[in-house]
Amino acid sequence: MEAEGSLGEQLAAIVARLPEDGTLTLSDLLAQLGDEGLLVVALLLTLVFLIPVSIPGVSTVFGAAILLIGVSRLSGRPLWVPARLAGKALPASRLRPGLLAGLVWVRRLERVSRPYRLRGLVEGRLQGIVNDLAFILAALLLMAPFGFVPFSNTLPALALLFYAVGFIQRDGGAVLLGHLANLCTLVYFSALIGGGGLAVRELLQRFAG
């Protein structure tokens, strides 16, 4: 990926080179990025979840890859992706348009992101550990089995987007938004689980009565 242009423009150029038909694998996406940073990889994998449309299998594959990126950052070791995960085939005809639509969020965040804003949230070993753990949490939330529920992928994806841009730009404000999105996701999922539990209990009581 060339260094010229904004982050959004660079990502758009990558997505434009991807196939429109057939299947697309995680290894295909990684090949397009070459030796670029892990955060750019995470940004690209996050884009498809920024619109409320579910693509079967994507949240598991991409979420696992983003999780491995978070673990790599936290441990300080090179990224390792299992061959089975890297070779998982996904529908290019649905994935590519989703990636392009998700770029809108990157461009929006680029306009409001400020390098070195609230730098106390992104500088220092302790802050790095906390932020990487929060990044991993967002990836796990993205993989949660709620893909059929509206915005269940969008909320953790927003958290990951904020984190990635915040880490790249050293923007504590963006990282803070990532923490907020993570919190909103936890509240939303808790409400889903709690509501589902109540519905099941009421159903069981009706059958028992």
TrEMBL record:
Q: Any idea which UniProt keywords this protein has?
A: Membrane, Transmembrane, Transmembrane helix
Its protein name is Exopolysaccharide biosynthesis protein
The protein's matches in InterPro entries, at most eight in alphabetical order, are given as: ExoD
**Coiled-coil regions listed in the entry:** none
Query: Organism's domain of life?
Result: Bacteria
Instruction: Report any Pfam family annotated for this entry.
Output: ExoD
Q: Where are the transmembrane segments?
A: 38-71, 135-168, 180-200
